[in-house]
Design goal:
Distance between the termini: 33 Å
Largest sheet: 4 strands, parallel
Amino acid sequence: MVHLANDWDNILRDEWSKPYYLKLREFLKTEFKTRTIYPNMHDIFNSLKLAPFDNVKVVILGQDPYINPGEAHGLAFSVQRGAKIPPSLKNIFKELVDDVSIVAPSHGCLEDWAQQGVLLLNTVLTVRAGQSKSHAGKGWEEFTSHIIKKLDDRETPIVFMLWGRDACAKQELVKNPQHLVLTAAHPSPLAGGRFFGCKHFSKANEFLAKQGLTQVNWQI
């Protein structure tokens, strides 16, 4: 049983005992014993721990964790303090500077966003070192789809920012019209040219303001 110490515990209480999750759990036990896995097992659910269900106002959905040492810590696109800013996050910061005129951040830790209600969620929450998408198809996709469905059921409007093919595939899960869904290419160097100009950060804040909700301070 996972304990998140906030309202996600109640939202997800039945999920931990479902056959797919029990199978995923056994897979992860073996992986952590025999491989180098990111993030640390104690950080896997940091996105949920830092952004309680009732606080979520924006969901940023990515692919899977960073594959290099000292980077992934359970928040999509974020890296631990002291880590070099990865190329995908550099592109995110470039879009931020162009979109909402912030000062380019000097570090890549996005915990401040999470604490404001930005759920930094990957579609897959773990990965083998050096092997992108190595934990795809093991059950995480069902788990994160359940999270999105639960958020979609909320009456309070949410902005869903879906980046990349895997994230955009979740668009069909957001059915309620009070929410805003924004899609874009993944901010990696391979697709960064198609990510630039999406203006998701200003669009999100404009939407939140229209709903009478507090905007996100994107400056970190």
